[in-house]
Amino acid sequence: MFPIVTIKQFLNDLRRQKLRSAMTMFGIFWGTCSIVLLFAFGKGITEAQLKSQLGMGDNIAIFWPGITSKKFAGLPKGRRIRPTHDDISLVKQKSQLLNRISPEFSRWNVNLKYKNESTARQIIGIWPEFGEMRNIIPEYGSRFINQRDIDEQRRVIFIGNLLKIDLFGEEKDAVGERILVNGMPFTVIGVMKEKKQDSSYGSRDSRKGIIPSSTFQTMYSNRHMNNFVAQAKKTTTMEIARKEIYEILGTIYKFDPSDHEALSVWDTSESFAFLKTFFTAFSGFLVAIGVATLITGAIGVSNIMYVVLEERTKEIGIKMALGARKSYIMFQFVFETILITFVGGVLGFLFAWGIIAVFPMLQLEEFIGTPRINIFGGILITCILGVISLIAGYFPARRAANLQPVQALKLF
């Protein structure tokens, strides 16, 4: 019976004080909406950036030839270290920590021609493992370079999705077609599936042509690679795997394994770890803003309930004179506070959900990702709203319950 009477009283108060009640609910509405949107967009941006970072590959490092900066075993510093194809094969055999490794031979401004269409792009020669390390996935009906292509020095080429459009257009199927690479015929065996990639060390994978390393060496007589790519096993870190690579190559070329100038390296796992930490802090900052907004709304609710208390002092005195208990008075005020907070919170959540549902129509996912309702965020908002309701309603309710009937009637 108590809740029904309280709800009726609450509705009567809403009708009498429409503006006051609306402004109070708006504070909770806006706080809830803000924190839901901040969670959703924060999560979307974080996932988009981390996914783009993984476009380069997961737990990989790229190594380039370098110059020694330390004396070692009687040899002077300043020696150039240029690993060969055979050296990478030896690293692959001896390593206990690497999952995959591949040399990478590169040549820029290579002329690619198909009928009347031609373009100048980067061509690289690699091992089959390169595709898995660099998250290069073939489109349906195509394939990547395989070991047989390497062994037989086949003139086959795997092309990026944008390079395919430049040469063949969007409609025509490129697989099986022949193109000229610096005047030599190559068969297209695959097209890369579109992926997000925010960083690179040459050109984007979507614009490259990829051929077997053995074919590349035959075409250009390259003994020394431009760089090589390595991926650590999931059970270890790239930092530890890098030390093993330095030790193996240091034994071959007689340089100090601690000499990091002997081979230049870009460890993408370090960049990924930095981004992950940054966006975790960023998400925490957004949450703090949302919580602060909700607290501001809670202060407004509490102040409104004190105003309600002043207006209903006579009513409270009459109820207590007729035998109403303190618990009833407290329950009435706390319940009204919870109703205000609940209604404002639900409306704010629904409004935010509507924005998130409509947002994909704007087609801005490439820049800020796709916002999604965060389950953890929803639970957190629910808990915060519950705490806010209790705190905002408790103190006015306690003050109302502690009034003496005679005192309440006199105050009026």
Task: Name its key features.
single chain; 412 residues; alpha+beta; elongated
Task: Summarize the structure in words.
This protein has 412 residues and is an alpha+beta fold. The chain has two domains: 2-53 and 273-411, no CATH class; 60-267, no CATH class. It has 14 helices and ten strands. A six-stranded mixed beta barrel has the order 3-4-8-5-7-6. A hairpin with a 2-residue loop joins strand 6 and strand 7. The longest helix has 44 residues, at 268-311. The radius of gyration is 34 Å and the shape is elongated.
Structural class: alpha+beta
**Overall pLDDT:** 81
Query: How is the largest sheet built, in terms of strand order?
Result: 3-4-8-5-7-6
The number of strands is 10
Q: Give me the Rg, rounded.
A: 34 Å
The helicity comes to 55-70%
Strand content: 15-25%
Distance between the termini: 27 Å
Largest sheet: 6 strands, mixed, barrel
SS element count, helices:
14
N-to-C SSE series?
A: HHEEHEEHHEHEEEHEHEHHHHHH
Low-confidence stretches: none
- Count of the domains: 2
What is the oligomer described by this structure? single chain
- What overall form do the CA principal axes indicate? elongated
Could you write a compact summary of the structure shown?
This protein has 412 residues and is α+β, with helices and mostly antiparallel strands.
